[in-house]
Design brief:
The chain has about 220 residues and is of the alpha/beta class. The chain is built from 8 helices and 9 strands. It has 2 domains: about 150 residues, SPOUT methyltransferase, trefoil knot domain (Alpha/beta knot, 3-Layer(aba) Sandwich), CATH 3.40.1280; about 60 residues, Trp Operon Repressor, Chain A (Orthogonal Bundle). α2 packs parallel to α4. The structure holds S-adenosylmethionine.
Length: about 220
């Protein structure tokens, strides 16, 4: 999978070079291309934002550099083009499963008051929000999206890690324990130490249902 990320702040994406995502890129399973929108401006002072028509606080990102960048990266509009935006559809696991099927994603990060509406109208396939709150820019939301999609790209994670995860079948995951057997008076449930795999599976399923009913009853209704 190839992911182009359009931003005015490329340095913010250093975390994508770490850990599982960093390894996946080194192994060629994932290609993440950070694109500096400023490289596409035709303004001699490299300006990429301006005051909003109609007045109001803040600056709006100019359409020209963004439009030219998208044209250069995806001339035939084969990529799925996403604008990270608080006005978008809220990201859920089902959307992650849908996006992982795409060969090429383009993620546009807004900043300041966001981007000129004509960029959304002319170039963007969908707007995605990571929740009902406002961040200073789309860079963190883009990293959230990349991280949760990349986990499902073939070979990035061991497939057994993806089984039974929260949201994978409409439930939250069961509790996990590791050593020591007793920590500050709390003991690991006996069934997990029994070696009886059928009993472990049954216990985990029951726990997943109990936790989901308690913490996220809305998931059971869906
Ligand atoms: C300060 S916000 C702009 C908010 C915009 N003026 C509004 O009220 O809807 C700047 C940028 O951060 C990103 N952003 C902020 N909150 C977000 C969220 N919850 N999900 C996705 N992107 C977000 C968007 O790319 C947005 O263009």
């Amino acid at each position: 999978m190839k992911i182009d990320i359009l931003t005015l702040f490329p340095e913010m994406f250093a975390p994508l070079r770490e850990s599982i995502l960093g390894r996946a890129q080194k192994q060629g399973k994932l290609k993440i291309n950070i694109v500096n929108i400023r490289d596409y401006t035709l303004d001699k002072h490299l300006k990429c934002d301006d005051y909003p028509f109609g007045g109001g606080a803040g600056m709006v990102m100019l359409p020209q550099p963004i439009g030219d960048a998208i044209d250069a990266l995806d001339p035939e509009h084969k990529a799925r083009r996403i604008y990270l935006s608080p006005k978008g559809e809220t990201l859920v696991q089902q959307k992650v499963f849908e996006l992982v099927e795409c060969e090429h994603l383009i993620l546009l990060c807004g900043h300041y008051e966001g981007v000129d509406q004509r960029i959304i109208d002319l170039f963007i396939d969908e707007e995605i929000s990571i929740g009902d709150y406002v961040l200073t820019g789309g860079e963190l939301p883009a990293m959230v999206l990349v991280d949760c999609v990349a986990r499902y790209v073939d070979g990035v994670l061991n497939t057994s890690s993806l089984v039974d995860e929260s949201f994978s079948d409409g439930l939250l995951e069961y509790p996990q324990y590791t050593r020591p057997q007793v920590y500050r008076g709390l003991e690991v449930p006996e069934v997990l130490r029994s070696g009886n795999h059928a009993a472990v599976d049954k216990w985990r399923r029951e726990q997943a249902e109990i936790i989901t009913a308690k913490k996220r009853p809305d998931l059971l209704k869906r």
